[in-house]
Amino acid sequence: MTEPEVKTGGKDQVQQAAEVLSQAFVTDPTVTYLLSSMSKESRLAYLPQFFRTALTAAALNGALIGEVDNWSSCGVMMPPDGKADNPLTLLQAGLLSALWNIGIGGCKASLGFWQASSSEQRFLTVSLQRFFWELAPIANEAKAKTFRADEKYYYISTLGTLQDARGRGLCSAVVRHYQSIAARNQLAIWLEAGTESSFRLYLKLGFMLVEELVLAKGKAAADGTRLKGGPGIKLWAMAWRPS
């Protein structure tokens, strides 16, 4: 079988990637939790903006956005020196202004490039808090068990396939494309699988399980909706190294 062709780009691909991922992640537990302050209807309506903003920050830090089969599937891989949480590019992407507008750190500002409504700013702020204060720490702890302090690696932050295109090996093609890039540079790849099906897929593609993580234990149900005393969301921290 011929491997599907993967096309890659950067900031020019943000809009199309956001459209794909906002559909692919409708029921994703982690994204559902990050945006769980919204009603289901508001969350689904907000997903495209959520991904546009996050992907803009990633692209400004050198993210490689790959797509296959005319945007039936796409992924985002950060380069070894790229940091999507870079304060300067978060500012450019419009993320930090959401924090400043509600006074975090004593700042009160209204930046012209931030066009979201005040309610959207509040929702984005809460999702950022959950990402930086809940998800990032447990992921970073797992990374510290895997990589030396000075070791460089790629990071696949997001992968998604449209519902009617699943089961055709498109996501696998994107991952293998990223693996070929990492192999040329003799560097590892890190990711966190957010569903059991994606976990099994990455195992087949040569990724090794580092640790099972639990996000929002006591705060969320397994599907990411808010639930006091809930079991939380299972994630699988995984790494791949070139042979």
Describe this structure in words.
The chain is built from eight helices and seven strands. A seven-stranded mixed sheet has the order 1-2-3-4-5-7-6, sandwiched between helices. It is 42% helix and 19% strand. The two termini are 24 Å apart. It has helices spanning 14-24, 29-34, 40-59, 87-93, 95-101, 118-144, 170-184, 196-204, and strands at residues 6-9, 64-68, 73-78, 153-161, 188-193, 208-215, 233-240. The chain is of the alpha+beta class.
Which short descriptors sum up this protein?
8 helices; 42% helix; alpha+beta; single chain; 243 residues
Give a short summary of the structure.
The chain is α+β, with helices and mostly antiparallel strands and 243 residues long.
Which band does the percent of strand residues land in?
A: 15-25%
How does the major sheet shape up?
7 strands, mixed
What gap, in angstroms, lies between the N and C termini? 24 Å
Which class best fits the helix and strand makeup? Answer: alpha+beta
User: What percent of the residues sit in helical stretches (DSSP H or I)?
Assistant: 40-55%
Uncertain runs: 96-117
Number of DSSP-assigned strands: 7
Mean pLDDT: 84
What radius of gyration results from the CA coordinates?
Answer: 17 Å
Q: What's the overall geometry? A: globular
Query: How many H/I helices?
Result: 8
| H/E series | EHHHEEHHHEHEHEE
Spatial sequence of strands, sheet with the most strands: 1-2-3-4-5-7-6
